Structures are given as C-alpha cells and as structure tokens.
Amino acid sequence: MTAVLRVVLDQVVAATSPDLAMASRELSRALVAGAPEGCAVEGIVPAAADVAGTVEGAVPGLVALSRMALPRRELAASWQLGVAPGVGGGMIHSPTLMAPLVRHDRVHAHDQIVATLWDLDAWERAAEMPKPAVAWHRAMLKRAAKHADAVVVPTHAMAERLTDLGPFGDRIRVIAGAAPRGFAVPVDEIGRRRALDLPEGYVLVAGSSAPSSGLAEAFRAVLGAALDAAVVVIDVPEGDEPAVAELAAASGLGEGRVQVRGPLEDADRAAVLGGAIALLAPSDLSAFPWRVVEALSAGVPIVATDTPTHREVVWDGGVLAAASDEGALGDALARVLASAAAVERYGVVAADRGRAFSWAGAAERVWQLHADL
Fold first, then answer.
1. Is the dihedral of CA 73, 79, 83, 84 positive or negative?
2. Which end of the chain is less crowded, N or C, counting CB atoms within 10 A of the terminal residue's CB?
C-alpha cells in the first residue's frame, strides 16, 4: 500500500508571495524526487483555471490532485474559520501557514496536519501590514496551536520566539529553506544586468522604505564605509520607489547613487547578485532571510546585523555587526571590502556556508517528520 503525502500547493496556483511560491514549488519537487520507497506525493489545490496544467508544469510527478471548490482567497477565509469540507484526511503538509487546521484523528485514522511558518511579520511589523493579513496570520497560528500535529519553522531562533506565541510544546520542528534549485549566476549575467540598467560593482540590499527593512541603516553603513560604490535595492514593492529614493537622500546618499528595482525573476536576481561586491542585510526581523541564503549560494560577501536569525543562518559565512553600535555595520562593510583579496576570501566562506542549505535535505527531514508522527 502506498503512503501518500498530501501537500498544499495554493502558492503554486495563486501566489501571494514570490518567496512562498518558490518555497512551495521547490519543496514539493524535492519531496517527489526524494520520496521513500512505497511513498508518493499528491497536491491539494484551490479552484483555478487550468489548475492541472499549472501544477504539473511547476511540480511534475504528483500522483494526484485534490481540487478544492473555492479559489484561493475564499479558501483562505474558509480555512481561517475552520471550515474545510472536501479536503479529506491522510498526511497533509503545508509549506506555508495555509493549511486545513481542523480537528482530526491522528491516533486511529492516522491523519496528520503540518503547517509551516517562514516569518513572524504579523507580530513583529504588524503596523506595516494590511489589517486583514495580520488578522489572518494570527488566527491561523491560533488554529495551528490547537490542531497542528507539528509546526515547521526555518530557524531555532524563530522556534524560540514561537514558544511565546502559543502552547506548541514539543510540536515545533526546525527545517530551513534554501535558494531555488539550480540557483547560480547565469552565463548571460552581464546582458541581464545591462537590461536592468545596473552599474558595475555595487552594494546590494533587499527591502523597502518600511522601518523594519533597515534600509536607512544600510544607506548609513555605505556612507560610514566611505565607499564610492552605488547601492542597488531590490524587492521594492510597486509604488514604493519614490519613498526609497527619499530615504536614500535623507541618509546622505547623493542623487544617482541608489538604483531601485522591484522583485526579480530567479535568473535576473542571480545575475544581480553576480555583479554585487557585497550584500548588506540590515533587518532585525525573525523572518527567514531568503536573499542572504541566495547570496551565500552565489558566493557573495555578506555583512549582516547581528541578530539570532542572522547568527544562525550566516554563521561563519559572513560578518555580523552589532545592532547596538550605530557605526558597526559600516565598519564591517569597510573591512569586507578593504581589498580584492578580502572580497575574494569572504566570497569563498559565503559559498562554503551556502552548501549547508538544500531543498533535498529539507524534503528528507519533512518525510522523516511525518514518519515520526
């Protein structure tokens, strides 16, 4: 008899976040590729046009699809209220917090429900988020505390924070994410950067004008390091570009020093990393730092604020700067970029650390988690 792991693939069908969509896609692919003997993977998907073609193109090898009657938005609202008709039982794994968290029988029917939490934004930066999104995340975490057989988080630092948000006991599991499969600087990197109209040799930052992003600290760090290099900011939400430019100017960076770009496709993002002399990671949020992991994978020198999350993810693959010292980030950046030899050395240690993250390893731990349950 085949044991079927049923994976919620709402982000593959109707993505609300590029990073969550990537994580859902890559973990599901790895679960299919690494399925133990006698095991298979099925998808649970919301209603959508050509859902089968969309999912098959993103995650080939699924043995079946369970189609829900509702589109993603309505399904999210339904599951928030604990109404999950038509889902069925078995082993259910969600790569996000979007899961049918309802009463079930793990002991006799062998049903399992596992959800995943990649950030604590609804608690740490609630004022920067739409109120309905905050309410949904908080309600779903309450349902997870009541009904989930396990909750997966990407770092031990977040696991520790999560214990303050609900009675999870020993149900928290740590399984890190990784860069997209095959993520590497492309052979046409120069052409891609030209198409994006980027300068040569820049410091890269990902974020927005929101205070939690830490962009102001990053801009001040570049000035503190006395660099002539430009700063490229990626992942800037649409419409936020003027605010980022104003923030740069207020920080003292002259006109033309800062280039602002929105979210990029994987290959373009890898090409942008390929042209960076360093990645600055100034945020102190608990969220899994996707761009830091990608920079590690690409062998880009990293300078990050010393937080529990960065300490765990970066480890010895970059330089951490004390958050309490206003000039520490700039001093660390200057040290990393002190010479070509220093840049090369920090790039090598970043690449070494980057090999610790893989979706194949994450999938193996997910299979083991459900076997343990």
1. positive
2. N
